[in-house]
């Protein structure tokens, strides 16, 4: 008998723009919770109520029985107390969604949160919004600031409809034990752990440590912010729980009058089903390690590798914004098929390391500690520098120069983009090592592609080409994983 899925995922917003009604937003729940109150977590909220209303309208009223329970569609089994899709969507946001996780503060990931929050009811308690401290600092100072949008949070005298919950990067060691150590409650039935990743670089036009141009006390996390509510997803008063400028490296320009180049911080959320210990990863926008001046993705794959090997990590939701025609210099902190498969190849190498360790004799393990390469029969791992990667020249004839689109971080590119002297070479595994592995290293892992940039032109959707390129690269790399582009009208069971 097939194993019962542990997760249901509804992708409300599968794309990265320019359409504002389909930008990033996912709903995740444990299938063991049966749509109970607080049993769903929203990951990003570029699209939130609009996506829920769209789905309810598609299946109402024909798919609702006499007891008000949905019988078809992504919300099958959900009891709806009202007649209209709009009223039921508001009920869902207020009662069923237990928290909102934000990967990074770009508008295509938070606009729905801002627009939708006023329908929350203060008497029900504030809705938790959980993210890394730097992400919440940006939301607090530049969105819910009584200028761009009313301060609807419960800090600084706001309306109290939202409460900020600052996650500890890499997990809070005070929570959990064993395999769940570091995970904290996301919603009923689900635990989470957040790791920082890089979404490229930008020019800071004000001091990043203080954001002195506006609301200095908020960005600096004054002592009043230690008083978090008892419902907090993660509370840790050590240095690890606060934003430290040292953790966001900056490139100091040669000309002191030039703005500082800083990492645009994004996140990867591990979500763990409390009942089965199965997991998925949901990434925010990210760039490949091979072009980053602060490679962070490898840390995620190091944690994920043993979980894939053990069969507990079943799905990855990750962006692939453009096809392979786009030059590295015009990816603007995003992935394309060649880079996504290169990242998954690093994950595959971690899986093979776990397999080798489990099958090795004590003597083999001793040799492995003395030799840190991928194996004597694997050949020498290739050292790849960002400046030697394909398409480093933005004037390449094969390259497709794209203008920056809504939600892209970048302003002006530095002249030496991709050629930073401090950039570290990134080790790329030799995939021939596991070409004959049975099973292939990522067999059983489902990779769901989100944040595809829509072209809004005649012809096949851009996702068709991206999917073909991913499959071709993955076959060449002997990965074994399956790629999917989510359909917003169909639930994903993992």
From TrEMBL:
GO terms for molecular function: 3',5'-cyclic-AMP phosphodiesterase activity; 3',5'-cyclic-GMP phosphodiesterase activity. Transmembrane segments: none annotated. InterPro entries: Pdiesterase2, RibonucZ/Hydroxyglut_hydro. One of its GO terms (biological process) is cAMP catabolic process. This is Uncharacterized protein. It comes from the Eukaryota. The lineage of its organism: Eukaryota, Fungi, Dikarya, Ascomycota, Pezizomycotina. Gene3D superfamilies: Ribonuclease Z/Hydroxyacylglutathione hydrolase-like. Residues 355-426 are annotated as: Disordered. Residues 382-397 have a biased composition (Polar residues). CDD domains: class_II_PDE_MBL-fold (cd07735). It holds the Pfam family PDEase_II.
């Amino acid at each position: 008998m097939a194993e019962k899925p542990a997760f249901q995922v509804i992708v409300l917003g599968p794309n990265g723009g320019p359409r504002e009604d389909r930008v990033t937003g996912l709903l995740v729940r444990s299938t063991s919770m049966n749509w109970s109150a607080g049993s769903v977590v929203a990951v990003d909220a570029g699209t939130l109520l609009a996506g829920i209303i769209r789905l309810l309208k598609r299946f109402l009223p024909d798919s609702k029985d006499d007891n008000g329970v949905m019988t078809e569609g992504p919300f099958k089994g959900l009891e709806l107390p009202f007649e209209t899709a709009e009223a039921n969507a508001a009920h869902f946001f207020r009662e069923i969604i237990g928290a909102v996780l934000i990967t990074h503060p770009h508008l295509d990931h938070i606009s729905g949160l801002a627009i939708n929050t006023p329908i929350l009811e203060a008497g029900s308690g504030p809705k938790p919004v959980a993210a890394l401290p730097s992400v919440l600092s940006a939301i607090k100072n530049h969105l819910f600031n009584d200028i761009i949008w009313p301060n609807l949070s419960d800090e600084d005298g706001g309306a109290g409809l939202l409460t900020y919950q600052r996650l500890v990067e890499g997990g809070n060691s005070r929570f959990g034990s064993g395999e769940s150590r570091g995970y904290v409650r996301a919603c009923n039935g689900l635990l989470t752990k957040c790791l920082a990743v890089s979404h490229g670089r930008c020019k800071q036009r004000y001091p990043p440590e203080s954001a002195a141009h506006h609301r200095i006390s908020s960005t600096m996390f004054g002592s009043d912010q230690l008083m978090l509510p008892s419902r907090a997803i993660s509370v840790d008063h050590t240095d690890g729980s606060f934003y430290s400028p040292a953790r966001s490296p900056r490139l100091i320009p040669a000309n002191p009058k030039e703005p500082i180049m800083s990492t645009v911080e994004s996140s990867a959320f591990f979500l763990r089903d409390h009942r089965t210990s199965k997991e998925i990863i949901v990434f925010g926008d990210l760039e490949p390690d091979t072009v980053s001046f602060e490679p962070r993705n490898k840390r995620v794959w190091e944690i994920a590798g043993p979980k894939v090997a053990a069969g507990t990590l079943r799905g990855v939701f990750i962006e692939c914004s453009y096809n392979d025609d786009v030059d590295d210099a015009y990816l603007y902190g995003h992935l394309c098929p060649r880079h996504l498969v290169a990242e998954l190849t690093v994950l595959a190498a971690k899986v093979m390391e776990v397999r080798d360790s489990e099958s090795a004799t004590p003597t083999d393990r001793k040799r492995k500690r003395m030799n840190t390469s991928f194996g004597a029969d694997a050949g020498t791992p290739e050292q790849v520098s960002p400046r030697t990667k394909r398409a480093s020249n933005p004037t390449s004839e094969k390259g497709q120069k794209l203008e920056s689109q809504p939600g892209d971080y970048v302003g002006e590119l530095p002249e030496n983009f991709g050629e930073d002297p401090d950039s570290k070479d990134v080790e790329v595994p030799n995939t021939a090592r596991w070409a004959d592995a049975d099973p292939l290293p990522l067999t059983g892992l489902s990779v769901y592609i989100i944040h595809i940039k829509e072209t809004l032109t005649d012809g096949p959707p851009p996702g068709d080409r991206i999917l073909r390129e991913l499959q071709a690269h993955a076959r060449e790399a002997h990965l074994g994983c399956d790629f999917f582009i989510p359909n917003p009208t169909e639930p994903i069971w993992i």
